[in-house]
Amino acid sequence: MRRAVATRIGARTNLALLVLLAAAFLTGWLAFAFATAPSRWSLILHATSGFAIFVLLPWKSMIARRGVSRPRPGRWASVVLAVLVLASLAAGLAHSTGVLVIAGPLTAIEVHVGAALAAIPFAIWHLAARRIRMRRTDVSRRSFLKGAAVIAAAAAAYGSTEILVRAAGLPGNKRRFTGSYEAASFQPELMPVSSWMFDAIPQIEAGDWSLRVGSRRLSYGELSSFEDTVTATLDCTGGFYSTQAWEGARLDRVLGKIDGSSVRVVSSTGYERRFPLAEANRLWLATRFGGRTLDSGHGFPARLVAPARRGFWWVKWVVAVEVDDLPAWWQAPFPTQ
Ligand code: HEM
Ligand code: HEM
Q1: Phi, psi of 219 (to 5 degrees)
Q2: By C-alpha distance, which of 68, 50, 59, 78 is closest to 11?
Q3: Separation of CA 122 and ligand 2 centre (Å)
Q4: Interior CA angle at 284 toward 330 and 269, to 5°?
Q5: Whose CA is nearest to atom 31 of ligand 1?
Q6: Is 32 close to ligand 2, i.e. is its CB under 6 Å away?
Q7: Residue 311 DSSP code
Q8: Rounded CA gap, 58 and 63, in Å?
């Protein structure tokens, strides 16, 4: 009888973990997709699901101890899963409180997201190899109330850490609503250099470069003769943001009168992003920031400035802008290179 009860608690705990992991994944990516208020809302849900995983740890460690003591193939993979999820949780908290924002060559957020991504194959394997059998009685008012209690405890724990961060004046206090930290605003020479994934910085000579605009070509001299300015904040998914005074050409002025649905902005590395054509009057091809020429790390000869969007939209080393009839959503929601 006792064993049966423990099994039911185990199955429900595992199911709750599954829901929470999925919620953390979804809300993490949602927060990356926006640079506006939805980012904060999804991060509140995100942090609550993360803390709820913490709340369930005592129950899960009972299940895990029982599982580890059984000699079964693939135990090591469950242990790797546990290490990755705990590493992701620790790095998320290190970032949000600000106790450790940079860990060697990586930022805490990069470790956080990296560990979570690395956990995916192990999580899928875990689900397939350690199946749970749910019963109809598992879906009851009691289990619903227990679930609500776990969420309430998680929300309270999250709220308390936020209050603690403020009261103790920890660096996390200065995070933007996206969770990012300020870095070198209006100091272009100190602005961090980052890329979405693995793009190496190309060294491009201005004389060898030209911008392809449909069937036309603009030289570096022609593009840099534009003096459209915009003060905009680059909010990098690596966990920092930087506000700079950008100068260059507003994209609709480069494109001229043209029909189409979307505009594709392509980098010399092959990286690209697509935008609605109607947004072209809110996008800039910058050649300067803070009164100085862009350096290679920040996208020389020209980089896109997309004020309403997260950093991965700000294509660097732009070589082509092309208008066509494909809808702007016709692309992977996040870059794949
Ligand atoms: C936070 C995510 C999770 C972590 C870190 C984790 C970790 C572990 C570990 C270390 C074990 C013991 C080793 C083993 O049996 O291979 C285990 C066992 C198990 N896990 Fe998970 N797990 C997680 C989520 C889940 C989910 C979402 C499910 C199912 C929906 C699940 C179902 C099971 C089952 C059925 C066992 C076997 C228990 C037994 O043999 O008595 N786990 N887990
Ligand atoms: C295993 C899956 C994940 C878990 C359990 C998890 C959990 C957490 C936790 C506990 C925090 C700290 C929240 C706080 O104290 O404010 C956090 C922060 C954060 N996570 Fe995740 N996370 C996961 C995956 C992801 C993914 C895949 C992304 C993005 C694609 C992401 C993006 C973020 C961001 C941006 C923050 C910073 C929030 C802030 O500082 O306000 N997380 N996460």
Answers
A1: -80, 170
A2: 59
A3: 19
A4: 60
A5: 14
A6: yes
A7: G
A8: 9
Which parts of the chain fold into alpha helices (H)? 2-33, 37-69, 75-97, 108-129, 141-167, 220-224, 251-255
Determine whether 50 is exposed, middle or buried from the number of CB atoms within 10 Å of its CB (0-12, 13-18, 19+).
Answer: buried
Q: What is the pLDDT of residues 10-23, one digit of tens each?
A: 889 999 999 999 99
Specify the pLDDT at position 5: 67
State in Å: Cα 150 to ligand 2 middle.
18
- Per-residue pLDDT band for 1 (boundaries 50, 70, 90) equals very low
Cα–Cα distance list, 9 to 19, 111, 240 (Å)? 15, 32, 41
DSSP 194-214: --SSS-------GGG-EEEET
What is the mean pLDDT of the segment spanning 299-307?
96
The answer to whether 264 touches 322, Cβ cutoff 8 Å, is yes
State both tokens at 132.
Answer: 């749970």
**Contact 22 CB / ligand 1 (< 6 Å):** no
C-beta separation of 78 from 63 below 8 A: no
| Dihedral over alpha carbons 160, 162, 168, 170 (to 10 degrees) | 150
How far is ligand 2, taken at its centre, from the CA of residue 237, in Å?
11
For residue 49, what pLDDT is reported? 97
Q: How many CA atoms lie within 13 A of 221 on its CB side?
A: 2
CA 268 → CA 202, 273, 314, 319, 332, distances in Å? 8, 13, 14, 6, 19
Catalogue the long-range contacts made by 166-173 (C-beta closer than 8 Å, 24 or more residues apart): 170/97, 170/98, 170/99, 171/97, 171/98, 171/99, 171/101, 172/95, 172/96, 172/97, 172/98, 172/99, 173/98
